[in-house]
Structures are given as structure tokens and as C-alpha cells.
Amino acid sequence: MVRRFNASSGHKLGQLVGDWFERYFVLPLLEKVSDELGLYLDHRFKKRPARGDKILWRDEDGNIVDYDFVLELKGADEKIGIPVGFMECFWRRGSRHSKDKARDDSGKLLPMRKTYPSARFLGIIASGDFTAPARELILSRKIDLFYLPKERIVEAFAHHGLIIDYPDTASEKEKRAIAKQFGKQFSESRKVAVSQTLYQQVGHVAIDSYLHRVRATLSSLPQEIRLILRDEYAPMIFDSVGKVSDFLEGPSFDKADPKENYLYQITYSDGTDFEGYAASLEELKRMHEDIAELTDHMNRL
Q1: Residue 266 is inside which H or E element, if any?
Q2: Helices 188-202 & 150-158, crossing angle to 10 degrees?
Q3: What is the pLDDT of residues 256-276, one digit of tens each?
Q4: Burial (CB count within 10 angstroms: exposed 0-12, middle 13-18, buried 19+), residue 3
Q5: What are residue 277's DSSP bridge partners?
Q6: How much is the pTM?
Q7: Cα–Cα distance, 115 to 109 (Å, whole number)
Q8: How far apart (Å, rounded) are the C-alpha atoms in residues 125 and 25?
């Protein structure tokens, strides 16, 4: 009984802080990003007729995965847009199982890069006690990381008389008292005040740097596009999105057959690549249209 109560007290406090972090820090940050880039931001704090209660996307293997935030091009409350960014966020009071968390969240994000050629930005916004090896794992998978150390979060709450941390040796009684007191004090006005304090601590330079990273990733344009009929060995190579679009209006592959499978390859200006298979010529055209839409959008900004 005691162990269950201990776990539930710590879990409840962590959940309150985690929900606050997602709603009052991450959401405003990503709203700034979406506003600056003219994109639609999907998140769980809004009702959206175009989807159900969760933000679900299907990967190339048919798995349906729930995400914290998705940036969409031409998205609206009534219409699902073209996905260009997927983000996860979390708060961790302790460092235990940090690498497992890094592996799980990056494992959710990586398939989106392979599934959607337009999903250029994958990111994690992490706060709390998150170890260096865990952070290195995320970065090694070419996923963007915005990290706020635990001390910064604790200080922001302490500035407003709120305690969110306790020693690992804390007794059941101490944990229960902290969680109970926090729940009583954590009013709407304090949620806003703590977030404002945290934004001041982080600083506009770090915020602007994050915005720049998102913009830079989405603005990295295709330098070479290769269309390959699966039964052929020589690719058709193009040096611009427009030339591919023109070609696909009346494609003339050798041995062209609408039932053939196609390979779509892109090399971007930031050195990254995309490779995806299209089961038909129409699917190939739809795949390229998403890239063309994103390219045109970023060029107009």
C-alpha cells in the first residue's frame, strides 16, 4: 500500500508539472514558430473537427502513433494539412531511465521522416533531469533538441513560492505534503506567472535560435531529385522541384506502366536525404506535390 501511494504522489506531481510545461511553455513557443512560418499547429489543447481527440498519424508500416505537436502546411480546423514537423515534449524530475525515454520518443519521430517527404523537422523539447547520453542519442538520430535543465524549472517555480522537487530519500509523508500543497497553490494565475518567469530565464536569444533552426530545416531546398522506375537502373535526375513538376505532367519513363513501383529520392541543401517508394504514378505525383507545396511556401516567406 505504501509503495503504491508513494508512486502515485510523485506521479501526480510530475504529471501536473509536465502538463504545465506542455501547455504554458511549449505551446506558446511553437505557436510563435507556426505564426512566423505561416503554418498550422495541431495540439491536444484545441478541439479540431478534422480529427478525433488525439493527434494520430500513420507511419509507413501502418502503425498509428499519437504525437504532442504537429506543424502542418495548409492545415485548418476542418482540414488535415501536409505534415512538415513533428514534436514531442516532456518533464522529468529524475534521471532514471533517461536513455529509454530518449529512445522511445526518437523512435516515435523517426518513422515520420521516412513516411512523409514533407516532414522535414523532427524535434524534442525536454525539461528536467535528462542525462548527457540520452541527449546525445537524440542528436545522433538527427532530431532537434531544445533542452531546459531541471534547475531552471525548479527555480522558476520557487520564484513564485512553489516546490516541485524533493530528495530521492524523501519519506512518504514528505512527498504527500509537497504534492498536496502544490495542488492547492497551482492556480491559473501562477501557471501563467511561472511560465513568464521561465521565458525570461531562457531568454529571447535561445527562443529566436530555436525558431531559426525550424526555419532553416524547412527552408533547406531540394538540390537534386531522382525518379527511378523500379525495373530500371538509371535514374532520371532533376536539379529543381519545378522541373520535376513539369515532367510529371506528362511523364515518359522508359517501360512506363501505371502499375509500376517508383523510387523518389531527394538530396537537400543541408546534406540530408529522403527516399520513398510510390506504388503508382499517381502516388508518386502526390508525394512530389507535397514537396513542391513546401518549397513554394518557404520561398514566399
Answers
A1: strand 262-268
A2: 130
A3: 555 678 899 999 999 999 999
A4: exposed
A5: 263
A6: 0.92
A7: 10
A8: 10
Amino acid 243 reads K
Residue found under cell 502513433: 65
Read off the pLDDT band of 255 (50, 70, 90).
low
254: helix, strand or coil = coil
Report how many helices (DSSP H) and strands (DSSP E) the chain contains, helices first.
10, 11
For residue range 60-83, list pLDDT tens digits in order: 889 999 999 999 999 999 999 999
Helix residue ranges per DSSP H, 149-280: 150-158, 172-185, 188-202, 204-219, 241-249
For the chain, the distance separating the N- and C-terminal CA atoms, rounded to the nearest angstrom, is 58
Q: Which helix (H) or strand (E) holds 284?
A: helix 281-300
What is the residue type of 278?
A
Instruction: Calculate the alpha carbon distances from 81 to 103, 143, 173, 218 in Å.
Output: 28, 22, 49, 15
Asked whether the CA dihedral 24, 36, 44, 132 is positive or negative, the reply is: negative
CB atoms within 10 A of CB 86: 26
Residue 270: how many other CB atoms lie within 10 Å: 12
* Calpha distance 79→33 (Å, rounded): 20
